[in-house]
Each structure stands twice: as structure tokens, then as C-alpha cells.
Write a structure and sequence with these properties.
heterodimer, A: mainly beta, 3-stranded antiparallel beta sheet, B: about 190 residues, mainly alpha, Arc Repressor Mutant, subunit A, 3 domains, two-stranded antiparallel ribbon, 4 strands, about 60% helix, globular
């Protein structure tokens, strides 16, 4: 929510994340709330909030 | 009889005070630079839902990181949950370990939980995507924090039982954010 409609919506944000399943890393880049790149390419990203 | 009871109470009080002083004496002394990192974290925690880690804070306040000062600061956080609600909510482990240390712990825990042999240094290096000397440094840090214990003479490590029982998908995770302006923090 912060990424798309909050404090970070106009920022370029890089996220380095750990996979919940293994020791793999996930790298995501957002620019102004939109996903620009993802590694690995097979990453499935869910965006939501409530 | 009353005198005996009073003497006993005084002795017990003195013993408690001495024990408390000894425990405080075991606490590593923070340097001025260490305190700068702690002060930054206490101010930063909770801002933008942040669960900022020690290594991120050290970069933010431009304190050169070493195994020693990271361990000193981490041990202080571990011993002082009263510093901030974030420590009590997410636990010191989340805040004091680097992403690499978390992934090493995760690889060892997953293997032990699944009843598989502990991964070798080279297997850990491959799994975490770092070099073997960095794996060794990570293992040393996890051992200092008593998350791992070394199995006698064998070069194998056992994970402390309490960490085996952690929720598999939620343990030793990290979600690090970097903004273009330079701010770095974690969320959970």
C-alpha cells in the first residue's frame, strides 16, 4: 500500500527479499508504484492491501 | 528468631544485587559509535513500518562495520528488549543478523528440520550465493549468538532446538527496501 498509494508512491524503491521456501533471493524494482523489474524472472508478485 | 530472619533477608537482597551487578558486568560496553547506531535504530524503528537492522543502521550513520562492533551492538539489543517495541514484537534475531547470516541459518535449519545432513561449507556458499570465507564468518556469528552450536570435533553445527521449532516460512526472513534517496530499511 505504501508503494502504490502512500508515502513511497512517487519513489523508486528496490526490494531485496528472501524467498519463503528456500535460501533464494528475490530482487524487485518499483518506480512510481509500478513494477519495473524482477529477478528471478519466475517471481510471482501479488500486490494488494486492505 | 526475628534477627535470624532479618539477617537472611539482608543476605538474600545482597546476593540478588551482586547477581544483577555481575550480569551487567558481562554486558559488553558500547562505544560512542555503537551508541550512535543504537540511537539511530530507536529513532527509526516503526517509521514506515520499519524493522531496520543493525547493518543498515551502521551504513546510515556511516559507522564502519566489523564482526566485533556488530556483535557488541547486537548483544546489547538482545539484552535490552525494553529499548523499543519493535525488538519485543519481532525479536532480536530479526534485527541483528545480516541477510547472509539469516540465509545460512535457514539452510542449516531446513536441513536439520528435514532430517538431512548439515550442508557443507561449499553447499552453503552455493545456496546463499556467497564465498566460503563469508559462510565461515556467518557461522561464527550464529555460533556467538548461540543460534548454532558446534558438534564436538566434527565440523558440523547443530541448530539450537528453539529455532527448529520456529514457523518454517517466517523464520530468518528479510524484506529489505532501498529508496532512491539513499534510505535503507527492512519491513516484516
Amino acid at each position: 500500500m505504501s508503494l502504490v498509494s502512500g508515502k513511497l508512491e512517487n519513489e523508486k524503491v528496490t526490494i531485496d527479499d528472501s524467498s519463503p521456501e528456500s535460501t533464494a533471493r528475490i530482487h524487485l524494482v518499483f518506480d512510481r508504484g509500478k513494477l519495473k523489474s524482477q529477478e528471478p524472472a519466475s517471481t510471482i508478485f501479488f500486490m494488494g492491501g486492505g | 528468631m526475628k534477627v535470624g530472619l532479618r539477617t537472611a533477608l539482608i543476605l538474600i537482597t545482597l546476593l540478588i544485587c551482586a547477581g544483577s551487578a555481575a550480569a551487567q558486568g558481562n554486558q559488553p560496553q558500547l562505544s560512542a559509535q555503537d551508541q550512535k547506531v543504537i540511537d539511530y535504530l530507536v529513532r527509526d524503528w516503526g517509521e514506515d513500518y520499519s524493522v531496520t537492522t543493525v547493518d543498515q543502521a551502521m551504513k546510515a550513520v556511516k559507522v564502519e562495520s566489523s564482526e566485533e562492533n556488530r556483535f557488541r551492538i547486537g548483544s546489547y539489543i538482545k539484552a535490552h528488549p525494553e529499548l523499543h517495541e519493535i525488538i519485543r514484537r519481532w525479536g532480536w534475531v530479526t534485527l541483528v543478523l545480516t541477510p547472509e547470516e539469516k540465509l545460512i541459518a535457514r539452510a542449516l535449519i531446513n536441513a536439520q528440520r528435514d532430517g538431512k545432513p548439515a550442508p557443507s561449507l561449499s553447499e552453503l556458499a552455493k545456496a546463499v550465493g556467497i564465498k566460503e570465507p563469508d559462510v565461515k564468518r556467518g557461522i561464527a556469528m550464529l555460533t556467538r549468538y548461540e543460534i548454532l552450536t558446534r558438534d564436538g570435533k566434527a565440523a558440523e553445527y547443530t541448530v539450537a532446538p528453539r529455532y527448529i521449532k520456529w514457523e518454517p516460512r517466517l523464520d530468518f526472513v528479510f524484506h529489505n527496501l532501498a529508496l532512491d534517496g539513499g534510505r535503507q530499511f527492512s519491513v516484516n
